[in-house]
Amino acid sequence: MAGAGPQPVDLLVTGIAQLATPRGSTPRTGADLDALQLVDDAAVAVDDGRVVAVGPEAELAPRHAPREVLDAAGGTVVPGFVDAHTHPVFDGTREAEFELRTRGATYVEIAEAGGGILSSVRGVRAASRERLEAGLLQRLDRFLALGTTTVEAKSGYGLTLADEVKCLEAIAAAGARHPVEVVPTFLGAHDFPPEFRDARERYVDLLHDEMLPRVRERGLAEYCDVFTEAHVFDLASSRRLMERARDLGFGVRMHVDQLTALGGAELAAELGAASADHLEFVSDAGIEALARADVVPVLCPLVPLYLRVEREVPARRMVAGGLAPALATDFNPGSCYCQSIPEVLTWAALRLGFTAGEALTAATLNAACSLGRGDRLGSLEPGKDADLVVLDVPDHRFLVYEFGRNPVRAVVKRGRVVHRRGEEAA
Length: 426
Ligand code: NIG
Ligand code: FE
Hints:
By secondary structure, this protein is an alpha/beta fold.
């Protein structure tokens, strides 16, 4: 409409020294992984929860009449981080185990002595749903303060139908009350509970016959996951469970080839999984299989660091092989007690050889795609949800260059300013 004057919008983000975003709705690989759109002296116009325009402030400001202005004060704006792999529902921490590892014990030794996942199972079984929800809400506050606007959340420390449902209900309740978007995953196949220690096949039967269908019926999880590993679920039981999950309508995510070279990546490819996670021990054949099946590898570079394992995921070979990696924290009380995507980005650069652009794309657009949300999340483009982070640094490369400090100044989720520094708990 000629002469209509500036367009009224809900929010204009101004004062952005640099806006950095991947583009598109599909997973990025190869040179595209590093191909950010960069706009200096930028602004973002937002209306009805969505991005309306991204561009130079000098062009956007006169064209929009915002009801609210968020001044980025010379900072950098990036898409809200999408953390595609976390285990945030637990009660009680495992700092004593960490100390055992610093003295030389391995993750599997601790697990086989009844610690590890099973110690978190004791905590979750003893906790009420309300208590788990309260703990999760606090953790969601911290995710938000660190710039994460969408988080995948796994159950997996209950290991009975009732305790897993309790965890998934806590996820649903916390997700409904909190600005962070929470994507629920059922991980009943995380370990064998103590009461099935000597009857493992019976627990697989229980998952297959009872737990998976009941969880699905109740609509409590979008995805189903399994810890495919030599000391827990072998390839045959993982295949049986994930085929069942797929048939019931779950999306499939899998912990594979994390501690041993079992061939879990090939299985994830065969099953058409949405993601294959960890992959430190993936083979070249596994990388090829994942590429052919368009499975997103979700890399968790803090975990081997935290477990004191030398082996790194072959991230460069994956990118060369056409895979579109996502980066995640794997936040959990045992193998990574850290919720910070900015920290992950630095370690992805230092340990995996990612550029800042590659790391940012992996923790936004590619992660969103692994959660089936690439059309709506993961980049700042007209029509997408207005999920963005204001960083107090002048250039997106500080995301990898600087670490040990939270650079997040403010967070917008679906067009609402939901966090400003100084308002968080800690
Ligand atoms: O992703 N691999 C299995 N699960 C977690 C560890 C969970 C735990 O130790 O509590 C992981 O590393
Ligand atoms: Fe995990």
